[in-house]
Backbone:
């Protein structure tokens, strides 16, 4: 069920692991690239490549042909530049330019995504000759980073070295909302004012929503990592991660016994439970907890669901294995948390959050195992 | 407001940081030690010392006199042994003994907290002479790790080298529950059967609840790190962590504009907002998000509350700074997330979770700054 090659006995038996399938990642990059042609496909790899590891992810996507990368801040940009040294990549810093740090952008050849006059003024003082390219970000209704659209004419009159003009969609996954199309319309107006430089507005949800969002460049994040696997049919996205954790104890409990902190779950009849070595310190949301009044999340053992009983605690989750035949499940066996029975979208729905939060919050205590073939 | 010494300009200006006050940590250890005398005070430093860093935390607490440490699993035990090399410390592995890994417990001199016959049988095959000490864990109603109490007589007949007998309290912070006292009674019965070896049942909440829980050893976790700061008066616990993040853009938005993903917050009047460079990828819970129907969390700027507007996103949180005088708040200024205006307990209440989850989920993207004096 799990590949055991290339791992020592101790690594196999002792702790939770996240398996990251770099082939599936490359396949996803290729599928999206193909789907958006002739638009270019960049990659959003901020937040340590959504928790999967900046180094391995960026290398894989580079080898698949990607040459434009979006990270969140200066530190991530420097880390990427130090690890992916090919001179032919462009690294965009989404958070823009921080005060007193402009020399680092130059030193590491990083392209700030500038979205305020303050940043722009600083940049212009620094780069009087317009040598270093920048990206310009317009806020078309998200009320987050980016210039107010009323500033478009003024900024277009500056002699800037603009490598990309961009905006970001607030709710591209909401099929009934008209806001994404309104944002796109506004953005296209701005592009005209700038005499149509290279433009980009689509994240994963927007690139799936409609081809009109593709423009010159799309910049998917979550779909590269296997998100939206079930949510659309236009584009095949493969699962990239599996998460497993070992059973550290199996026990029988009597009807009426309570399980875990706060004693919020009381057994309705005699049960067999397994204690799994993973918890909220590893990134398993406490919102997967269950009580007698409220269903929680579930894990899987060889295809069978094993519901979570009581509260998820720091290092341990208790699951119900009463329906699994005695002696077919043992201490040391691994339980599927994310895998072929439960993808990141299913798990995040049960946790009342989004796949992005699940991935980015998986803690460093979980071993990462990269699968190369 | 924040100590700026020993940091480079880039470090000051660019990214969120967690300041960990090691003096306060040592003071908390000393206060608890004093409070529980003549009981011994161990330290629970699992989950990377609740996210604060195993190395710095264990060294500080060792220097304050601690000689017994509890970690969660074998990997944490090895890491602690490699970093805190003094031969006079005992390292307990709470998750017990994993299959096929017993040689590592011996090699690194780690004491497994054994809670099942399976583990015990393996250990006895390995250590026929009862040379290596173990801890024995009884489940007194938590339905988590530990032997069923009915096994006490049987186990007491084995010739074991028991360094500690322990149990764990399910809901010691619930003042009206009688369960903690029932668990203690059961545990004391078991201790008698074992002819009173060294015993321990109290976590932070139990050691505050009543001195009868102190027994031979207490093993606080969260109270060392500043949790329960406001919840009790018997014991002075100092705050240990501060969390700050920088403003990357300030902007004005018009009445009716929506903020962030899903557009769940619409401005009720013209507002000034600041975009703060921290998000759920860093460990800020999405449950702090606000909408027009639901209050969210808040951060602070120089003592003034700045409510979160809309959804917490991966790398950015928008806050309302309309009440802060214009020109007294700027891009590059730092916003307090945890500090003198909002401690970890306040923040976690607003996020509908517990301080433990907040601390353990702060991501590695946040710089840790240790304050030594």
Residues:
């Amino acid at each position: 069920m799990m590949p055991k090659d290339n791992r020592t006995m101790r690594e196999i038996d002792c702790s939770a692991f996240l398996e990251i399938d770099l082939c599936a990642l490359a396949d996803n990059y290729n599928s999206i690239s193909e789907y958006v042609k002739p638009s270019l496909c960049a990659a959003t790899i901020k937040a340590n490549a959504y928790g999967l590891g900046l180094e391995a992810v960026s290398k894989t996507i580079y080898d698949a042909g990607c040459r434009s990368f979006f990270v969140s801040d200066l530190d991530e940009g420097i880390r990427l530049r130090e690890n992916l040294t090919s001179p032919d990549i462009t690294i965009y810093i989404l958070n823009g330019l921080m005060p007193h740090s402009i020399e680092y952008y130059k030193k590491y050849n990083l392209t700030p995504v500038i979205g305020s006059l303050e940043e722009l003024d600083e940049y212009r003082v620094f780069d009087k000759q317009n040598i270093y390219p920048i990206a310009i970000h317009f806020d078309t209704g998200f009320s987050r980073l980016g210039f107010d659209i009323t500033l478009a004419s003024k900024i277009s009159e500056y002699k800037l070295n603009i490598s990309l003009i961009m905006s970001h969609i607030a709710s591209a996954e909401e099929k009934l909302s008209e806001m994404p199309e309104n944002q796109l319309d506004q953005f296209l107006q701005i592009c005209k004012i700038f005499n149509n430089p290279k433009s980009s507005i689509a994240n994963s949800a927007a690139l799936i929503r409609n081809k009109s969002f593709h423009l010159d460049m799309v910049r998917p994040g979550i779909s590269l990592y296997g998100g939206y696997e079930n949510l659309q049919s236009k584009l095949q996205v493969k699962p990239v991660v599996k998460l497993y954790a070992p059973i550290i104890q199996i026990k029988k409990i009597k009807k009426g016994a309570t399980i875990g902190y706060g004693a919020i779950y009381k057994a309705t009849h005699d049960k067999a439970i397994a204690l799994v070595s993973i918890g909220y310190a590893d990134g398993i949301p406490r919102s997967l907890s269950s009580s007698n009044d409220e269903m929680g999340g579930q894990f899987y053992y060889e295809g069978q669901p094993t519901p979570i009983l009581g509260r998820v605690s720091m290092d341990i989750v208790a699951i119900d294995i009463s329906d699994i035949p005695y002696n077919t499940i043992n201490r040391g066996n691994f339980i599927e948390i994310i895998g072929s029975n439960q993808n990141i979208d299913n798990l995040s729905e049960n946790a009342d959050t989004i796949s992005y939060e699940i991935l980015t919050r998986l803690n460093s205590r979980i071993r990462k195992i990269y699968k190369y073939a």
Notes: Chain A has two domains: 38-218, 241-371. Chain A has a mean pLDDT of 91. Residues 153 and 193 of chain A are 7 Å apart (CA to CA). The radius of gyration of chain A is 24 Å.
